Amino acid sequence: MSDRVGETRGTSVSHPVTDRVLTVPNVLSALRLVGVPVFLWAILAHHDALALVLLVASGVTDYLDGKIARRYGLESRLGQLLDPVADRLYIVSTLVGLGVRGIVPWWLAAVLFAREAYMGVVILVGRRHGIPALPVHFLGKAATFSLLYAFPLLLLGDGTNTVAEVARVAGWAFTWWGTGLYWVAGILYAVQLRQYIRAREVPA
């Protein structure tokens, strides 16, 4: 569930992007993709333990694939495609599952979906100007990790015992923080894109 659609892994490109397919980061991203339908089935079928395990595993592998790619120079074009696709599918499936279960209101899902649509427009504008990717902003990372903590806690909070009540309060705290940062980061990406476009328009 990262903030990396149309953005590069990391704040700067430290390694060349290759055409390699079989790499550890790509395998991790592919495993996350395979887990999406299983996760959606688990959450809709009220198999919460399995859904929690898959959601936590998604967050861990999301962190590891980027870390490994940067550390060992394994950034690839396929990885830049698989990673954000897997992240977005988990966001969508989680919001749908939590919405159907009544754990989160549909208007909150709409707010997060609207941000995804907004970023899609930003990315399309960037590609029209020959800018295929934007560096990941710190706030984007903070928003992503906040939501990564929020979703499992909200799912764990679907109960009446003390653990569920504590998890629900913490989950909503991360949800509000993450949602706010998600939109702020989106606006900053648009400002950043505008600066790139203006810089390209300045005569050499």
From TrEMBL:
**Pfam families with a match to the protein in the record:** CDP-OH_P_transf (PF01066)
**Subcellular location, record wording:** Membrane
* UniProt keyword annotation of Cell cycle present: no
Q: Main localisation, per the record?
A: membrane
Q: Which UniProt keywords apply?
A: Lipid biosynthesis, Lipid metabolism, Membrane, Phospholipid biosynthesis, Phospholipid metabolism, Transferase, Transmembrane, Transmembrane helix
Show the Gene3D superfamilies listed in the entry.
1.20.120.1760
A Gene Ontology biological process term: glycerophospholipid biosynthetic process
* Membrane topology value: Multi-pass membrane protein
Supply one GO CC term from the record.
membrane
What family is reported? Answer: Belongs to the CDP-alcohol phosphatidyltransferase class-I family.
* PANTHER family for the chain: CDP-DIACYLGLYCEROL--GLYCEROL-3-PHOSPHATE 3-PHOSPHATIDYLTRANSFERASE 1, CHLOROPLASTIC, CDP-DIACYLGLYCEROL--GLYCEROL-3-PHOSPHATE 3-PHOSPHATIDYLTRANSFERASE-RELATED
Q: What is this protein called?
A: Putative CDP-diacylglycerol--glycerol-3-phosphate 3-phosphatidyl-transferase 1
Organism whose genome encodes this protein: Nostocoides japonicum T1-X7
Gene it is expressed from: pgsA
